[in-house]
Design goal:
Radius of gyration: 27 Å
Number of strands: 0
Number of domains: 2
Structural class: mainly alpha
Order of helices and strands: HHHHHHHHHHHHHH
CATH topology of the largest domain: MetI-like fold
CATH architecture of the largest domain: Orthogonal Bundle
Number of helices: 14
Helix content: over 70%
Largest sheet: none
CATH class of the largest domain: Mainly Alpha
Distance between the termini: 52 Å
């Protein structure tokens, strides 16, 4: 009996290593673009169905019908919504966000002017909130059920649930009106306003580089109170999450093993348990920072802070959808960038994610 004929085995096609490395990047980029597109579409539709009329904001309520219709057509509002959105996307791809009705300038110029003020305050706030919130959370977790734990939890609950504008008004009343420790409204005293050219928009940096130390001290005095109030809100959130993460780690078997081996409590907590929650805390801090950058509307209103939040609020009340959509796009880019940055830091601090 003859042997069966040999079967021909075809080689299995394999993707190249280069494509394997680029595929996740392409998927992530597609997800980012799809998220931004959906965010812009949602904001665009909401802006068009709002009861605010941007034409009246330009021509005023006393304009005649012909003037109203002329401006209506110049803004492209006579075209269907899909066509308006397509035109907007085309301008966006060319880097043109349109002109703002509030100032008459380009939206990109306005955002570049007001955003450094918010970023300066939010950066100081997140530093304050992180440096205070993480130690408090770790301290409460290591003393679970004690008076110290309950005090930290009450402080966190109070800081997280109390409206930030109430903190702002009480802070102005106590530290500005009564004690005179903090500065008032604005970024700097009126006597120093305009003394330092806005090279970067960050007043602390610009005044220090120009050697205007009186302006620098005035700016520090003005930014400290609103930054601490925002930082208190972030501190409450960060401390609560740190406590939860640490409690989960301190109940693990490796912590008991480390204690049985005779390691100090400080070494067990900070060198073992805390290192395992560091990756989670990166995401928490990044999201808290993003919330501060786009959510400082109330505190900027209370302190008359000429920042991004106040610009967004004024544009929204005026019905200036070019400015509103530009601000929404910036907020979306901020959150996506912070998420991508936290993912990158994951791979730095957690080798398991590199696979």
């Amino acid at each position: 009996m003859s042997d069966p004929s040999p079967t021909l085995t075809l080689p299995t096609p394999r993707s190249s290593p280069r494509w394997s490395r680029l595929a996740p990047v392409g998927r992530r980029l597609f997800s980012v673009l799809l998220t931004l597109l959906g965010l812009l579409l949602l904001t665009f539709v909401i802006g068009r169905v709002m009861p605010l009329d941007p034409v009246l904001s330009i021509v005023g309520p006393d304009a005649d019908r012909s003037t109203y219709e002329q401006v209506f057509k110049q803004l492209g509002l006579d075209k269907p919504l899909p066509v308006q959105f397509a035109y907007y996307l085309g301008d966006l791809l060319r880097g043109d966000l349109g002109n703002a009705l509030l100032t008459g300038h380009k939206v990109t110029e306005d955002i570049a002017r007001v955003f450094p003020a918010t970023m300066e305050m939010a950066t100081m706030a997140i530093i304050f909130g992180t440096c205070l919130g993480i130690p408090l959370g770790v301290y409460a977790a290591t003393r679970r059920g004690t008076v110290a734990d309950h005090v930290v939890r009450v402080i966190s609950l109070f800081g997280y649930s109390t409206p930030v504008f109430w903190f702002g008004m009480m802070g102005l009343l106590v530290f500005y009106a009564w004690l005179g420790w903090a500065g008032g409204a604005g970024r700097v005293d009126l006597a120093f306003d305009g003394m330092v050219p806005p090279a970067s928009g960050f007043l602390l940096f610009d005044s220090a580089m120009a050697g205007e130390w009186d302006v620098f001290r005035s700016a520090i005095k003005h930014v400290t109170l609103p930054a601490c109030i925002l930082g208190l809100h972030s501190m409450a959130y960060i401390s609560r999450m740190t406590r939860s993460f640490m409690l989960a780690q301190l109940s693990q078997e490796y912590v008991l093993t480390a204690r049985v081996k005779g390691l100090s409590e400080r070494g067990v907590v900070w060198h073992h348990a805390f290192r395992n929650i560091l990756v989670q805390l990166l995401t928490i801090v990044a999201l808290a920072y993003g919330s501060l950058l786009e959510g400082a509307v109330l505190i900027e209103t209370v302190f008359a802070w000429p920042g991004f939040g106040q610009y967004l609020t004024s544009s929204l009340l005026l019905g200036d959808m070019n400015a509103v959509m530009g601000c929404v796009l910036v907020v979306g880019v901020i959150f996506i960038t912070l998420n991508l940055l936290s993912d990158a830091l994951y791979q730095v601090f957690d080798p398991r994610t590199r696979r």
